[in-house]
Amino acid sequence: MASNTVHRAPMGYHLGMPALRFGILAIGLLTAALFAPLRAMAAPITDAASAPLSFTQAVIPTATPVTTESQSTVTQEPPGYGLLPAAAAVFPGILVHGTGHLVAGDSEGGLALLRWEGLGAALFFGGVIPLGLSGASRQVVRPLYYLSIAGATLFAVTWFADVYGAATGGRPQAAPLGMRPIWGSEAGYVWIDDPQFEYDSFFRVAAPLHIGRLGLAPEAWISLATPHDMIRVEATWRISGPLSSTLLRDETSLDAVLAVSRWNFSPEGFRVWTTDLALRGRYDMFRLNRSLAGSFAEGELGWGLESFTYDVPHRSLEGDTAALLLARIGYGVRFGTPPVGHGEAVLYYDHRHDDWLGGSGFGGLGDGVLGHWGIEGRWFFTEHWGIAAEVGQGAAWMTRADLVYRGGMP
Fold first, then answer.
1. What separation in angstroms does the CA of 260 have from each of 32, 218, 240, 303, 318?
2. Cis, peptide link before residue 339, omega less than 30° from 0
3. DSSP per residue over 321-373, as a string?
4. Which of 165, 182, 180, 394 is closest to 297 using CA atoms?
């Protein structure tokens, strides 16, 4: 007997080939949008004669000679950064990025930030609007998500940059952290307040290693009171940027990342294996404008795969798998001058939902969709020894404090 049941495709699948073509177009737009900044990451800073500039030469603002109609040379007044431009950068600058620089008289920096904000807004809405119209079709959801995240990254970074630059006018004395160490070690305590699990106190240890372009970073989190732990091994390959034990006048870099993690939740009866593949970059903001010296932007974009195994008494359960969208953005500032008494702090958003903090937990509409926020930093009080700290909030709260040692410094 023939069945009268009608099988309806999920919302968005009826788009067929147009949706597939739009997905290809979205990937093309994302590639084109990211090509320029990635090319800038690989390019050294040069003057008009193509001779490399030192960090100080590149970032210290200097008076600009201006030729009048009578060919006499006068000195242009430097921009007036400070409290008023910073306030303008907050509002209405949150809508029109670069406002703070324009109020300060830095039209070049203000217009540069405005252009990048425009590109970010175009990418964001170019991803979000088709995503909504397609009903989040599986045929286009991944490229559109990446397109939207790339746009949101540019939008957020340009606003933070406007506030920082308008307030400070740049801090060229806040140089990068001296050298990129060959090896290091970190050990400390982590407190996690998660209403879903019994754990709270962890011991954390890590041992990063850099050999040329290759980086290895084993890390372990071990619960002090319950049988929970996490072990992660991360490998990176430096595509562009400074290598081990080189002077860091410019930390602009791009890395390929491959990581494997194992999460053990024995009391709850399951374990999770995670594999990550991503691109991770840092951009020294003085490359964009001299007023941004002493600050930097960070970003990571990638894909992950989770594999779940279950250990339930008297039952045999098949494992599960799930895909992860990996994205992280951050804006940071440096303090002090290397090699002694210097550090940095980064305000970040991380979209991943599978770590200790999980997704957002504000009790609002964004729960389960957005990731988590936090601030982390480190300070070196000698050439080798320092401290690191982090506070983050998602579905759980986390506070971390580490003692840090960096070795292999020439």
1. 30, 10, 23, 12, 21
2. yes
3. EEEEEEEEEEEEEEEE-SSSSEEEEEEEEE---SSSS-S--SSSTTTTTS-EE
4. 165
CB atoms closer than 10 angstroms to residue 385: 11
Q: What is the pLDDT of residues 315-336, one digit of tens each?
A: 888 889 999 999 999 999 999 8
pTM of the model: 0.81
Query: Helix or strand or coil: residue 164?
Result: helix
> In 83-227, which ranges are E strands?
183-193, 201-206, 209-211, 214-223
Contact between residue 368 and residue 159 where contact means Cβ atoms under 8 Å apart = no
Q: Which residues pair with 141 in a beta bridge?
A: none
Q: In whole angstroms, what is the distance from residue 147 CA to residue 140 CA?
A: 11
State the chain's maximal CA–CA distance in angstroms: 98
> For residue 385, how far is the Cα from the chain centroid?
25
Among 275, 21, 55, residue whose Cα is nearest residue 139: 21
Give per-residue pLDDT as tens, 251-281: 899 999 999 999 999 999 999 999 999 999 9
